[in-house]
Specification:
The protein has helices at 3-23, 28-52, 57-83, 89-116. By secondary structure, it is an all-alpha fold.
Length: 132
Protein backbone atom coordinates (compact mmCIF):
# COMPACT_ATOMS: atom_id res chain seq x y z
CA UNK A 1 0.00 0.00 0.00
CA UNK A 2 1.39 3.39 -0.93
CA UNK A 3 1.75 6.31 1.46
CA UNK A 4 -1.08 8.13 -0.33
CA UNK A 5 -3.37 5.10 -0.13
CA UNK A 6 -2.63 4.69 3.58
CA UNK A 7 -3.29 8.38 4.23
CA UNK A 8 -6.67 7.98 2.54
CA UNK A 9 -7.43 4.74 4.39
CA UNK A 10 -6.67 6.24 7.80
CA UNK A 11 -8.67 9.37 6.97
CA UNK A 12 -11.66 7.25 5.92
CA UNK A 13 -11.26 5.30 9.16
CA UNK A 14 -11.42 8.55 11.13
CA UNK A 15 -14.54 9.64 9.27
CA UNK A 16 -16.21 6.30 9.94
CA UNK A 17 -15.34 6.61 13.64
CA UNK A 18 -16.93 10.07 13.71
CA UNK A 19 -20.12 8.74 12.12
CA UNK A 20 -20.26 5.83 14.54
CA UNK A 21 -19.71 8.17 17.51
CA UNK A 22 -22.61 10.33 16.34
CA UNK A 23 -24.86 7.27 16.35
CA UNK A 24 -24.12 6.37 19.98
CA UNK A 25 -26.96 6.83 22.46
CA UNK A 26 -27.01 9.81 24.80
CA UNK A 27 -26.04 8.14 28.08
CA UNK A 28 -23.27 8.89 30.55
CA UNK A 29 -21.29 5.78 29.55
CA UNK A 30 -21.76 6.36 25.83
CA UNK A 31 -20.74 10.01 26.17
CA UNK A 32 -17.44 8.98 27.80
CA UNK A 33 -16.77 6.32 25.15
CA UNK A 34 -17.80 8.73 22.37
CA UNK A 35 -15.13 11.26 23.37
CA UNK A 36 -12.49 8.56 23.76
CA UNK A 37 -13.22 6.77 20.48
CA UNK A 38 -13.30 10.06 18.57
CA UNK A 39 -9.94 11.08 20.04
CA UNK A 40 -8.17 7.78 19.37
CA UNK A 41 -9.91 7.10 16.04
CA UNK A 42 -8.97 10.47 14.55
CA UNK A 43 -5.47 10.21 16.07
CA UNK A 44 -4.85 7.22 13.80
CA UNK A 45 -5.12 9.47 10.72
CA UNK A 46 -3.18 12.40 12.17
CA UNK A 47 -0.56 10.04 13.55
CA UNK A 48 -0.05 8.36 10.19
CA UNK A 49 0.47 11.76 8.59
CA UNK A 50 3.14 12.39 11.23
CA UNK A 51 4.76 9.06 10.26
CA UNK A 52 5.03 10.37 6.70
CA UNK A 53 6.93 13.42 7.97
CA UNK A 54 9.36 11.55 10.23
CA UNK A 55 12.79 13.15 10.46
CA UNK A 56 14.82 10.02 11.19
CA UNK A 57 14.54 6.27 11.42
CA UNK A 58 14.01 6.46 15.17
CA UNK A 59 11.34 9.14 14.74
CA UNK A 60 9.67 6.99 12.08
CA UNK A 61 9.62 3.92 14.34
CA UNK A 62 8.31 5.94 17.29
CA UNK A 63 5.49 7.47 15.26
CA UNK A 64 4.50 4.07 13.87
CA UNK A 65 4.23 2.85 17.46
CA UNK A 66 1.97 5.77 18.36
CA UNK A 67 -0.37 4.97 15.44
CA UNK A 68 -0.40 1.31 16.49
CA UNK A 69 -1.38 2.29 20.04
CA UNK A 70 -4.15 4.63 18.88
CA UNK A 71 -5.60 2.00 16.53
CA UNK A 72 -5.50 -0.59 19.31
CA UNK A 73 -7.15 1.82 21.78
CA UNK A 74 -9.86 2.49 19.21
CA UNK A 75 -10.41 -1.26 18.84
CA UNK A 76 -10.86 -1.61 22.60
CA UNK A 77 -13.46 1.15 22.67
CA UNK A 78 -15.30 -0.40 19.73
CA UNK A 79 -15.36 -3.71 21.62
CA UNK A 80 -16.82 -1.91 24.64
CA UNK A 81 -19.52 -0.35 22.45
CA UNK A 82 -20.50 -3.79 21.17
CA UNK A 83 -20.27 -5.64 24.49
CA UNK A 84 -22.28 -2.97 26.32
CA UNK A 85 -24.81 -3.08 23.46
CA UNK A 86 -24.56 0.66 22.84
CA UNK A 87 -24.88 -0.15 19.12
CA UNK A 88 -25.60 -3.40 17.26
CA UNK A 89 -22.53 -5.53 16.64
CA UNK A 90 -23.15 -5.50 12.90
CA UNK A 91 -22.76 -1.74 12.88
CA UNK A 92 -19.46 -1.85 14.79
CA UNK A 93 -17.78 -5.04 13.51
CA UNK A 94 -16.54 -3.66 10.14
CA UNK A 95 -14.90 -0.71 11.88
CA UNK A 96 -13.38 -3.00 14.51
CA UNK A 97 -11.95 -5.16 11.71
CA UNK A 98 -10.41 -2.06 10.13
CA UNK A 99 -8.89 -0.99 13.47
CA UNK A 100 -7.36 -4.46 13.85
CA UNK A 101 -5.99 -4.37 10.28
CA UNK A 102 -4.43 -0.94 10.78
CA UNK A 103 -2.88 -2.13 14.05
CA UNK A 104 -1.41 -5.16 12.28
CA UNK A 105 -0.04 -3.02 9.45
CA UNK A 106 1.68 -0.69 11.92
CA UNK A 107 3.23 -3.65 13.76
CA UNK A 108 4.47 -5.06 10.46
CA UNK A 109 5.88 -1.69 9.39
CA UNK A 110 7.74 -1.43 12.70
CA UNK A 111 9.32 -4.85 12.17
CA UNK A 112 10.39 -3.81 8.68
CA UNK A 113 11.75 -0.49 9.96
CA UNK A 114 13.80 -2.27 12.64
CA UNK A 115 15.33 -4.50 9.98
CA UNK A 116 16.37 -1.43 7.98
CA UNK A 117 18.14 0.36 10.84
CA UNK A 118 21.91 0.05 10.59
CA UNK A 119 23.56 -1.54 13.62
CA UNK A 120 25.47 0.75 15.96
CA UNK A 121 29.12 1.08 15.02
CA UNK A 122 31.89 -0.13 17.32
CA UNK A 123 32.62 3.45 18.51
CA UNK A 124 28.97 4.36 18.96
CA UNK A 125 27.76 4.98 22.49
CA UNK A 126 24.26 3.99 21.42
CA UNK A 127 23.70 0.27 21.32
CA UNK A 128 20.70 -1.23 19.54
CA UNK A 129 19.27 -4.05 21.69
CA UNK A 130 19.59 -7.51 20.20
CA UNK A 131 15.80 -7.97 20.45
CA UNK A 132 15.10 -4.87 18.31
Amino acid sequence: MTETEMKLRTKQFALRVLRLAAALPRTIAADVIRRQVVRSGTAVASGYRAVCRAKSGADFAYKLRVVEEEADETALRLELITEDKMLPGGQVTPLLKEADEITAMMVSAQKTARGLRPPAGPKSKIQIPKSA
